[in-house]
């Protein structure tokens, strides 16, 4: 494995370790873990039995070792609500979130590249000003507000689109995707535009034109790849934001993903499931960061060069 | 000087305007010259006098703030300025091409040099990736890059400054253009490398019978490299002619000043900073002669009447010309 990948894995793993330990502490810092895990109606006997069964009465260090063992085997015990394995529930909910985030980001990135490049091609033209104004507005729109307005107008008042759920045709995707799309799209258009303005004014662009390259070849063959790194970085952060922020949109639209699972487990004090959901999310974000770095390295040979630490 | 060779590039009355926050300014004003195949014309002048603007106007690569407001640029008889974009693109490479000053930024940092060298063949000859790659490799060998086969898949940052300049030159001559412009191709390089690059340009010019326009502010380079010289000042041509004649007997006070500021022993990298004062601001070019504020010979007439570029000695049959009312006073000086 190339050195830069190894180095990056190590540095991205730090936040992951923090989350893992954080979850462990959280379960214990709040005082009585039995209160956290068991329903409010639990009897004192049930609590003692629960503490003993889960080893909460043992020394903290051995609890930590057990917990780490569980993390590595991805075993968080059973859900209070369903009795199913908590890890299984988290893993089953996760694809729905990933699909939603993936579709959204794909549309946002492709759209932003087209609009952003178009605006950057003639900086300060009327087209550029319009694109900048609209993307700035979109980039600062709170998504929950848009989600609620969307449901009110298109689902409740007009009845054109379903309010929630993933059962049904492609129309169930419309409102959640648009809601999630608006802000990342706005932000990305601005990043693409800025980055492309710089790239298009670089001398190598002139050289490409001096070789008789067509304008699409100049823009997409030469400039875009040079403009890509900041876009990639911001798109990565936005994707992380989408996965983290899935809670709001999934709740509003009843989308059965990890965000909704988290909210449901919090509301129903289903701590084992919450724990599994948090860790699945953390691992995904870790993997995403590595993926972004690999993309950076693919795009630019200078990144691949091993810089002595 | 072979007068048998044909005129490859003929520039006439070329003017370029730039839009700045302070208003429109004329950066290039009525510049004209012509270059024959197999010969080198040097465009000489201080920084900011409009050499690069002239070159970029000729190849049609001006920045959006600048545009050609007048003139003609004839390449093998065809006026490039009357062609549409597609027709100009077809000539970019096989007809006319340019080498830029800073080879690091002129090469695309994220593409292999092999891909960049192959690009002219892909665009104009429609060669397959493989065939274009082969041509690119031959080209790399031709410009003297050792181990070309292995270095095809290297990136620009893995080459030295001199090698990068060789790559740029290779790209520019890939399709045997009739005219090659070189905009200060060696300023960023050290002295030994500079002469190697100049040598390479000379060889390529001879072997491909190209007309070369060499932009420089180095008098020594002009002396050893060029057949003709065009001296520019504040966007205008102030003197032009065969290098030997112009250097032996400059007929414009500016050229004379430049030559006098050159050290006894001609060394490379001699800047043109030694004349007192500085060129006028483009937004407030004085009426009359552009050089009046720095000219030791200035008179009243210079402030009111613009001197035209005229042949200095009509009987001599040479095209040595100067734009000075009193140029005959410099004869045999
Ligand atoms: N993008 C631009 N915007 C505004 N003014 C410009 C721009 N580019 C060039 N100029 C001005 O146009 C004039 C001519 O510039 P040009 O680059 O042709 O000079 P040059 O002779 O090539 O100088 P150098 O030897 O420094 O390369 C200069 O006065 C410069 O300040
Ligand atoms: S015209 Fe006058 S100011 Fe201009 S160069 Fe000649 S003598 Fe000097
Ligand atoms: Mg220049």
Automatic annotation (TrEMBL), chain A:
Membrane topology, record value: Multi-pass membrane protein
Domain of life: Bacteria
Protein location: Cell membrane
Entries under Gene3D superfamilies matching the protein: MetI-like
Keyword tags: Cell membrane, Membrane, Transmembrane, Transmembrane helix, Transport
Predominant localisation class: membrane
Pfam family, one: BPD_transp_1
Sequence intervals crossing the membrane: 12-31, 98-121, 142-161, 173-192, 271-292
Domain ABC transmembrane type-1: 94-292
Homology family: Belongs to the binding-protein-dependent transport system permease family.
Protein's recorded name: ABC transporter permease
Organism: Actinomadura alba
